[in-house]
Amino acid sequence: MGIIGRNGAGNLGPHCSRYFRVLRTHPTEGEVTLRGRVASLLEVGTGFHPELTGRENVYFNGAILGMTKQEIVDKFDEIVEFSGVADFLDTPLKRYSSGMQVRLAFAVAAPLEPEILMVDEVLAVVDVAFQRKCLGKMGKVKKRAGSRESIQF
């Protein structure tokens, strides 16, 4: 399922991120039923700790996203290669630019092979080449999941 704004650009207005947060967490009222593995890239730095290194944050964020330690170990090289931040892996995250943080966040979420991938405007802070790389990865997720529908607001 894709949610696309009126102008086709994905901007759903001021409440979009709030709706996505409700879906990725537990609502306080009502009910949200998600079937499948969910990964979300809604806000730069969500699930990251600024004092930890990039390497440590890969494990930390991977665990938050529901990956087992073995899954993270098995996919670690793929994550680092995809992110393009290998030279800074042992640097504290507080020294990363917002673009570098998004690269790392997407790289951790990408190998999850989720059935549901929620992406807000986080890719706006990265370069065009990395955006294309991410869109290619999301296209693979879409094909694998057999996605056929989108909802437009």
Description:
With 153 residues, this protein is mainly α. The protein has one domain (3-152): 3-Layer(aba) Sandwich (Rossmann fold), CATH 3.40.50. The protein is 42% helix and 8% strand. It has helices spanning 16-24, 54-64, 69-83, 98-109, 128-145, and strands spanning 3-4, 38-41, 116-119, 151-152. It has a two-stranded parallel sheet. It has a two-stranded parallel ribbon with strand order 2-3. The protein is globular and about 40 Å long. The two termini are 13 Å apart.
How many β-strand stretches? 4
Query: What is the 3D shape?
Result: globular
- Class by alpha and beta content: mainly alpha
Uncertain residue segments? 148-153
Q: Describe the biggest sheet?
A: 2 strands, parallel
State the CATH architecture.
Answer: 3-Layer(aba) Sandwich
CATH superfamily: P-loop containing nucleotide triphosphate hydrolases
Taken in chain order, the helices and strands follow as EHEHHHEHE
Which CATH C-level class is it?
A: Alpha Beta
Count of domains = 1
